[in-house]
Amino acid sequence: MTRAVGDGSGDGVGRGRLAYAWCALLVGALTLTGCGIRPTQVPVDGGPAPSRVPCEVRGDATGQVHPQALPVRIYLVCGSQLVAVDRTADVPAASSKEPARGTLQVARAVLAELQREPSDAEQEAGFSTHVPKPMTLGPARSGDPGATLRLSRQPEDLEPQSLSQLVCTLAENRVGVLDGAVLLGGPGSYAPRAYDCPPESKTRPKDPLPTRPSSP
After folding, report:
1. Region 105-125: what's the mean pLDDT?
2. What is the Cα–Cα distance from 209 to 216, expressed in whole angstroms?
3. pLDDT at residue 125 is higher than 90
4. What is the model's pTM?
């Protein structure tokens, strides 16, 4: 049988299928909304998982107390930040050339503590150190400001995290400090630089430390 032109039967079937498809989509969207799920085609990045390390050493971790022992506070890395840890450093006995517990002796003792592997308790708490070995500290040279300390490596050649540990620790123990900044030079003929340790450098130690010209 020939279908009469304009009887509308084909259009009615098409409209019915289209309405059914829209109803199915609407029901699916409502189901997702009712379950607390927001439909999206863009993957959501929730960022890194929060750190579970405590960054706190339990008990007394300062070490054995003896005549050459000196309480110091050093900065170790924990949870991508610098966190202060109390230690007991060995300071050499007095000699005819260098008085006991002078700036250089304390600076060397602090550096040795930074280079030492964290204790089992510190590692369990999430602490690590990135200050390299071998590296030593020497006195100021002629023409340097009096508070200057000279590293056996150029300071700017160190990784920012390592330099942040060293500078913030020296500043905390008030060695090599002039006008609030730590004066560091290297083995070459370059003039020393004044390094600051603001609070943001402790929270983001991988960022370059702020510097300023050293004054004689």
Report:
1. 95
2. 21
3. yes
4. 0.70
